[in-house]
Write a structure and sequence with these properties.
CATH class of the largest domain: Mainly Alpha
Family: Belongs to the sigma-70 factor family. ECF subfamily.
Number of helices: 7
Order of helices and strands: HHHHHHH
GO biological process, one term: DNA-templated transcription initiation
Protein name: RNA polymerase sigma factor
InterPro entries: RNA_pol_sigma-70-like, RNA_pol_sigma-70_dom, RNA_pol_sigma70_ECF_CS, RNA_pol_sigma70_r2, RNA_pol_sigma70_r4_t2, RNA_pol_sigma_r2, RNA_pol_sigma_r3/r4-like, WH-like_DNA-bd_sf
Keywords: DNA-binding, Sigma factor, Transcription, Transcription regulation
Structural class: mainly alpha
Shape: rod-shaped
Length: 179
């Protein structure tokens, strides 16, 4: 039993080849125009257009009259492609990657921590104490001065000499820490 108006199945290969021979070149040219000369995109859309034609066997009855149908399908495919691209957020591109910090592996962090601990251990207790207060507790020289009960100039002097000693030790260890 056949229902009128519903296609029974796909078009046979010879009919599709004939349809492509008659209209493939002109539809491809039309698609290149719509895609601003993007040959690969035009070929992809041409393939999709003829895939849809293959699924529409009634076109095989009058292949010479199928061009308006093919052009309409091709135009709708281009419109769908544009709509799909506009729905997606714009891609950032590779330029933004240069500004992202590089993730470091956990092993590197452990090695850096051990090296820094060794360098801190080589500082005198008074210099180490000032560095801990300023850089680990985030205190200003005035606050460190108040906490330790020493003059601000002494705090600054100890920090300066401690940082110089740390840099020297870390440079010897070939460790580069970001400032």
């Amino acid at each position: 039993m056949t229902i009128v108006g519903i296609d029974a199945g796909p078009m046979d290969g010879r009919a599709l080849a004939e349809l492509y021979r008659m209209h493939g070149r002109s539809v491809h040219k039309y698609l290149r125009t719509l895609t601003n000369g993007d040959v690969q995109l035009a070929e992809d859309l041409l393939q999709e257009t003829f895939l849809r034609a293959w699924r529409t066997p009634r076109l095989a009855h009058r292949p010479e009259a199928a061009r308006p149908w093919l052009v309409t399908v091709a135009r709708h495919l281009v419109i769908d492609r544009v709509r799909h691209r506009n729905r997606r957020p714009k891609e950032a591109g590779d330029g933004a990657l240069a500004h992202l910090p590089v993730a470091r592996c956990e092993i590197s962090r452990v090695v850096d921590s051990i090296t820094l601990a060794e360098a801190m251990a080589k500082l005198t207790p008074s210099r180490r104490e000032v560095v801990v207060h300023m850089y680990l507790h985030g205190r200003s020289p005035d606050e460190v001065s108040a906490v330790l009960g020493i003059p601000v100039g002494t705090v600054k002097s100890r920090v300066h000499s401690a940082l110089r000693a740390l840099r020297s030790h870390l440079a010897a260890s070939e460790l580069c820490l970001a400032a």
